[in-house]
Amino acid sequence: MLQRLLARRVFGGSSSLRCLSRGFSQLAEAEEGNVVVPKMPPFDYTPPPYDGPRTDEILRKRREFLSPSMLYFYRKPLNIVDGKMQYLFDEDGRRYLDAFGGIATVSCGHCHPEVVEAVVKQSNRIQHSTVLYLNHAIADFAEALASKLPGDLKVVFFTNSGTEANELAMMMARLYTGCHDIISIRNAYHGNASGTMGATAQSIWKFNTIQNGVHHALNPDQYRGIFGSDGPMYAKDVQDLIDFGTCGRVGGFIYEAIQGVGGILELAPGYLPAVHGIIKKAGGICIADEVQSGFARTGSHFWGFEAHGVVPDIVTMAKGIGNGIPLGAVVTTPQIAKVLTQRNYFNTFGGNPMCTAAGHAVLKVIEKEKLQENAFVVGSYLIERLKSLQAKHEVIGDVRGRGLMIGVELVTDRQLKTPAKDETFHIMDQMKEMGVLVGKGGFYGNVFRITPPLCFTKEDADYLIDVMDIAMSKL
């Protein structure tokens, strides 16, 4: 690439390039072939030189010692060695705009100083103490977290991940209602353990193992769904599942207000209020999976379900809760929480002082830096600019989302909505070469998932748009 060639010519080798904070990827008007690359927004941070293993060595070890099921992006995988706020740095010191946020996980920003300080301070004091002993970190965070939820949602159980949180929530629903049947939505993703894999409804994420007691309703997909944006029409399928697929009673209904892995699909308006009513009538409880849409990411609200005017019985969360620290939680009512006292239930690391200290710091940073407001303002601006880009490029079939949880679906034919899977991979790779990292998802793998840290700026949004425009123009 041009910046490496220039580095070797001017500075005598790649080791000198690694010492540059912004490198030649930030040169205004730097040319990649015949393409003029726009200038990346300025950023005042210089990562320390990296002297660790290089990409080839890491790939060799990964192939030999790690599970072959582990995936990685791009034709030339990235070796990310440093991060600060909305930016990442590779082994050569090259800066990248992170518009994926570790799969909607980095909420405050990479290595946010206040979150780092909280982790270090707690780690220096005590890293782990079982919840069989008392420690203020878990209680303080639980109190702060409960204050962010509506109604009687005030009892917290900490886990290590979203999968664990959803497993626990589904078990609690079954115990509380005495019914085994759970209703989920097609195209959903809720985790990769036994129960959550059953609730997940995409074949690419499911193994041929026993997954019983889960029924999958029509997805209220406003882009591809048969009823468009008519939420109550989709809700009728939930009633049909109860009438014809169960004994007439159910344990619960689990949903993502915005499907993340499924391609950033917001459930059709009117759907959740209708389904909540149907589930309650059938004796079940409602579980909101906020693993990706929670913690101010949608901008308009702190939680995704709030945009639909409903209050669930259980809320699960992870990812953004810890800004990258392994942490998840289940929040429910005191009445439902009591079901876990029927037997002993325990999680060794759930409520770990170091993790809960980080989670508490995240809440404080979101409030202090008004990141929910920023997600709304910048996200709205980015969606508007993406829709303008859609008018220019036929390959963009749909732009959707809220705040900084945005999906861009690519198609080869707008009328037929034919998934542009190969084009998605190619554009994504080209964007990486120009310094922008996005994710991808959807059942067909043709949706860009834009879920950056909530400190993302309008200047970052402009740079993303310019790079995406160039990449699409090269198709």
From TrEMBL:
Q: Which UniProt keywords apply?
A: Pyridoxal phosphate
Query: InterPro entries annotated for this entry?
Result: Aminotrans_3 (IPR005814), Aminotrans_3_PPA_site (IPR049704), PyrdxlP-dep_Trfase (IPR015424), PyrdxlP-dep_Trfase_major (IPR015421), PyrdxlP-dep_Trfase_small (IPR015422)
Record EC number: 2.6.1.44
Task: Give an example GO molecular function.
Answer: pyridoxal phosphate binding
- Which GO CC terms are listed, alphabetically? mitochondrion
The chemistry this enzyme catalyses reads: glyoxylate + L-alanine = glycine + pyruvate
Which positions, given as ranges, span the membrane? none
Query: Needs which cofactor?
Result: pyridoxal 5'-phosphate
Q: Which family does it belong to?
A: Belongs to the class-III pyridoxal-phosphate-dependent aminotransferase family.
Name by which UniProt lists this protein: alanine--glyoxylate transaminase
In its UniProt entry, the species of origin is given as Acorus calamus
**What is the taxonomic lineage of the source species?**
Eukaryota, Viridiplantae, Streptophyta, Embryophyta, Tracheophyta
